[in-house]
Design goal:
Blueprint: H1 25-37, E1 70-71, H2 74-79, H3 86-93, E2 103-105, H4 110-122, E3 125-130, E4 150-155, E5 162-166, E6 171-175, H5 180-187, E7 192-193, H6 206-212, E8 229-236, E9 239-242, H7 255-259, E10 268-275, E11 277-278, E12 282-290, H8 293-304, E13 312-316, H9 318-324, E14 332-340, H10 346-358, E15 362-363, H11 365-372, H12 383-404, E16 407-413, H13 418-440, E17 444-454, E18 457-467, H14 474-494, H15 510-516, H16 519-532
Parallel strand pairs: 2-4, 3-4
Antiparallel strand pairs: 1-2, 5-6, 6-10, 7-11, 8-9, 8-10, 12-14, 12-15, 13-14, 16-18, 17-18
Helix pairs in contact: 1-12, 3-12, 3-14, 8-10, 13-14, 14-15
Length: about 550
């Protein structure tokens, strides 16, 4: 029953992370407190098991020449049935998997990818490229509509090697199926790092980062994976499309820019040349408190426009400090950091702290000084910054049992300009809180932090925590979530933001994407897709519909 073709450690098919990972007693107590604080009750609901699900038989068989790469094992199909959004977790708790792939394929190399796409194109089989499966917007669900003969999830895990390192240009050729820890482990002996750390780092891949334009470690400058991509190689049903290695080019529209953000609809990225970093040796860190959140925002804007370019500049509003365990809700907290492989960052931090002080921020000067000493290299893992970092990494694990107890815990992220932010922040929080109250009958906790900042605006990341059902009824909570998600999508567009800064469009954000972009532009994308995917088999329903098929809004919101 639990057979799998995957060669990686077993992951929790119904939730986040490794199957072997368990919550600590402290974390369990924290979740219980959160459920009770929101007015819920701890339920004794058993965790989903593979045997709880009855899956339909595959509708079509792969050819004998490819069959060794294909599996229809229940565990593999469940692992690839959904991503890791709130709705995905809730449906797993309910044992509802409406769009399970018929098969999961594990290609060994690029030629196998070519062969699978060729077979799929000839037999009207939808193909969903799959990296780590960490999508939170319906990007890997096989909700492709009724016009396809079958659906196959194409898992790239076996293409996971660093193939080549160019120390002169400081770049590496890396296969797209490499998870974050896998590629970093292979770069480390060369003295390099990609230094791209999304929250999903442990369970997401280079290819997934590229096609979703993932946001990473840096709060300024190299905020998206876009900035680290030197060239790409993508297999399409019409052939292989590879760009030239160049530091920059002004030769027409960028080929790589069409690959970036394509979300598996144009082709399957098999490898990319990536710009590397040397590992940082010098750091400077500060945790700053602002009793006035508005002054904290003004300070971050000043930092963004100062030319100092901190590596970390994440402002947590008072409610977010409670969620992260770094405050009691009476003040905002700014997690501020600089890093370099070349030189001490003392002067950068000192100038930043002058700005902080001018906006009423307070900080522990001794802690800052320790972080700037040679022996203070681990200061960024302690104190407020360390607590926030640990909560950032562990929060997805906390969400699993919370959802099973009827809580709605979800996030959405966006970006807007500084001139709009004050009204944007108030308007989005108000609209979402009202939607939660209307859908559930219970109040919501809506918090915000900045994940990335730019001279012209921040990228706010909102967290919602609410009681979906006082009785722990996950079905009722899921129904309420659908109303709340649509309201959140509408709010960020209405108040002047983007539907996503770094989570991608997928299926769940398509309504907002279609409000944000002109129809003519989407027709251009459809035409480009038609040239490389004439049968429209690649991830149909994500981002856009194939030109000659009507898939529409499907998945959790369909």
């Amino acid at each position: 029953m639990n057979a799998t073709l995957s060669r990686r450690p077993l992951r929790r098919f119904w939730g986040w992370g490794a199957a072997s990972e368990q919550l600590t007693q402290e974390e369990t107590a924290r979740i219980s407190m959160m459920v009770q604080m929101l007015g819920g009750q701890i339920t004794d609901r058993p965790e989903p098991q593979v045997g709880d699900f009855t899956l339909p038989a595959p509708r079509i068989a792969p050819p004998a020449a490819l069959s060794a790469m294909f599996t229809d094992s229940p565990l593999d199909r469940l692992n690839h049935a959904m991503g890791k959004s709130y709705a995905d977790l809730a449906r797993m708790w309910l044992r509802q998997v409406p769009h399970v792939p018929d098969w999961v394929a594990y290609p060994d190399d690029e030629q196998a990818v070519i062969d699978i796409l060729d077979w799929a194109s000839r037999h009207n089989v939808a193909v969903i490229p799959y990296g780590g499966g960490s999508s939170v917007c319906g990007g890997v669900e096989a909700a492709v509509g009724a016009s396809y003969a079958a659906a196959v999830s194409l898992d790239m895990e076996r293409l996971n090697r660093v193939l080549e390192v160019d120390p002169t240009s400081r770049a590496a050729r890396i296969q797209a199926g490499a998870l974050g820890p896998e590629l970093e482990a292979q770069l480390k002996p060369h003295g390099y790092t990609l230094r791209h750390y999304p929250q999903s780092f442990e369970f997401s891949t280079l290819g997934g980062w590229i096609v979703t334009r993932a946001g990473g470690h840096y709060a300024t400058l190299m905020t998206h994976i876009d900035d680290l991509v030197e060239s790409t190689r993508m297999v399409t049903p019409s052939g292989v499309c590879a760009s030239r290695r160049l530091p920059a080019s002004g030769a027409g529209p960028s080929q790589d820019r069409l690959v970036l953000g394509s979300e598996g609809t144009m082709g399957v990225v098999t490898e990319a040349w990536m710009r590397l970093q040397e590992r940082p040796r010098f750091r400077a860190n500060a945790s700053v408190r602002f009793t006035d959140y508005k002054q904290g925002v003004q300070c971050v804007r000043a930092l963004a426009q100062s030319g100092l370019y901190p590596s970390n500049c994440r402002l947590l509003d008072p409610m977010e400090t409670v969620f992260s365990g770094v405050g009691d809700g009476t003040a905002a907290v700014l997690v501020l950091a600089f890093e370099s492989a070349d030189h001490p960052m003392n002067e950068w931090m000192r100038r930043a702290l002058e700005l902080v002080s001018s906006y009423g921020g307070s900080y522990d000067a001794e802690s800052v000084e320790r972080s700037m000493r040679d022996e203070g290299g681990e200061e960024h893992r302690s104190g407020t910054a360390g607590v926030w970092r640990q909560a950032f990494l562990r929060m997805p694990y906390w969400r699993d049992p919370a959802v099973g107890n009827g809580l709605i815990m979800d996030t959405f992220e966006t970006a807007t300009t500084w001139d709009k932010f004050e009204a944007f922040y108030k308007g989005v929080r108000k609209d979402v809180a009202q939607a939660v109250q209307q859908a559930t009958g219970h109040p919501a906790f809506v918090s915000c932090r900045f994940t990335h900042i730019y001279p012209d605006g921040p990228a706010p990341y909102f967290t919602i925590a609410a009681l979906g059902s006082a009785q722990g009824d996950v079905a009722s909570a899921l129904a309420a979530w659908r109303e709340i998600k649509l309201a959140a999508n509408e709010a960020v567009i209405k108040h002047g933001g983007t539907i996503t800064h770094h989570h991608a469009v997928g299926r769940d954000h398509r309504p907002g994407y279609e409000q944000e972009t002109p129809a003519l532009y989407r027709q251009m994308l459809q035409a480009a897709k038609a040239s490389v995917d004439p049968q429209g088999i690649l991830n149909p329903g994500v981002l856009i519909d194939p030109r000659d098929r009507q898939v529409g809004i499907t998945g959790a919101l369909g």
